[in-house]
Amino acid sequence: MSDTANLYDLFSNAAARAGDKPCLVEGSEIRLAYADLDMATARRARALAALGAKPGERILLQVEKSIENVLLYLASLRAGLVYVPLNTAYTAAELDYFIGDAEPAIIVCDPAKEAAIAPLADDAKVLTLDADGQGSLAALIAETEGEDFETVARAPDDLAAILYTSGTTGVSKGAMLSHDNLASNALVLKDYWRWQPDDVLIHALPIYHLHGLFVALHLALLGGSTVRFHRSFDTDAIIADLPRSTVLMGVPTFYVRLADHPELTSGTSANMRLFISGSAPLLESTFADFETKTGHRILERYGMTEAGMITSNPYDGDRVPGTVGFPLPGVSARVCDERGEEVERGEPGVLEIKGPNLFQGYWKKPDKTEEEMRPDGYFVTGDIATMDADGRVAIVGRAKDLIIAGGLNIYPKEIELALDAVPGVFESAVIGVPHPDLGEAVVAIIVREDEAVGESAILSAIETQLARFKQPRRVIFANALPRNAMGKVQKAKLREDHAELFAAQ
Ligand code: MCA
Ligand code: AMP
User: Fold this and answer.
1) What is the pLDDT of residues 329-377, one digit of tens each?
2) Number of domains into which the chain is organized
3) Contacts of 99 (CB under 8 A, 6+ apart)
4) Which of 178, 203, 238 is the last residue of a domain?
5) Is ligand 2 within 6 A of the CB of residue 409?
6) pLDDT-derived band at 1, boundaries 50, 70, 90
7) Atom from ligand 1 closest to the CA of residue 303
8) Residue 474, domain CATH
9) pTM over 0.70
10) What pLDDT score was predicted for residue 504?
């Protein structure tokens, strides 16, 4: 059914053009050819429909990255379900919130987590899928008869996915993304980054966040390109793939680690057309180091879960380090003061944006959506930016209290709430401190009311509540937190005081 707005139809059309070309390749094994994409996703969509899940209902997943996981995502689109992927690092306590909020009809988890998740599932059906694509869901698919499926018709604004993003208040919000949000962004990027019919993409990002799931996967599928599928980021494995690939998308940590590898040279990267970085600021030193070693100028772009890709350095024009380029075609961007008045070009202010990529709001939180929208439909990103006379944007800071470590967003408030609840802790302030590998690392400054409570007791108290990547890498005890005249903790001062904490690593 090609006259609806179901995003899957774009991929199906591209697959028809790609024919026998490999779609998903793992190591030396072709795991799926484009010619088999429709059949493979149809079988899985039939299985999901047979479970009784209806279009518009949510399918929530916390599974390891696998080919089966990719197929399940595509099958969910075909079945008209709303796909809700979750970071595999989330604890049962965190999952409890997401399940309660998303109210899924189907939950898919690793078999090892089934016992912990089943009691949280309410009315949802719980199925399992492991890293090798085995589990009760795989068994169900194997039993499902028939190899065709009529892709469910979707209107442009119908939801394709809900992606959770934490908030400054410590409560996660589900960003509702429609079929048209995702399709329009992918189509624009395909042109902007000059996607080529013979491109081969190295895919080493997780597929529970927008970068790996949408930006990377959608572009490859839309282009009928071969995906060299990596279950995790391993520097040696990426270097080995460079000579048979053309595009890599990664977070800055990928490029820091690659640039440190002795085999990253202009020779090993000669077949590569494009290195793209995003999700966190790429240091100018990493950009320069990478260019010296490979001759490639990394293309940095900027985006958000709520809006997909927003700005990008140009493909042909100058890729300027320290900037994120220009608003993508169709995206309007302006830099404003706190009242929403545009500031002079070149002056810093909060970046506000509008376009077909902008989400449908936060799931079940219309008040939160309203808080971040201007009356004329612009979304307040919370990023501090400058825009020069030509429209080139640089992200120069954050108005929101956010840490980005290894491309993963961490909201200090959530960690502070957990720390403050630990017996013996009086109060805490969580900050991001420059880290050579992760960009920023989480550090907690803690004021105790009971000095007998040490670092390990505090960290083990929050272990089961917060995903590992959110847990502080260092704890520093203080007698008091620095505050301004209004009583607000001076995080900028704390960040300055501890800026060198990881410098020697
Ligand atoms: C792993 N650990 C981390 C992180 N990743 N700690 C802080 N920040 C992280 N990002 C911890 C683990 O819990 C573990 O702790 C230790 O570090 C080593 O774990 P390991 O799995 O070996 O780490 P890794 O494989 O080396 O992973 C680092 C990574 C990975 C490759 C940078 O985190 C990654 O793939 N990040 C990409 C995230 C991403 O997709 N972001 C895009 C979001 P311990 O040893 O103590 O147990 S989408 C987005 O931001 C927007 C929309 C956009 O613009 O794209
Ligand atoms: P997320 O919450 O995962 O959607 O992450 C979105 C945030 O990541 C943005 O609001 C920015 O703060 C940050 N971000 C993404 N790309 C870049 C970039 N190229 N430079 C600086 N910050 C970025």
Assistant:
1) 999 999 999 999 999 999 999 999 999 999 999 999 999 999 999 999 9
2) 2
3) 60, 107, 117, 120, 121, 122, 124
4) 178
5) yes
6) very low
7) 54
8) 3.30.300.30
9) yes
10) 63
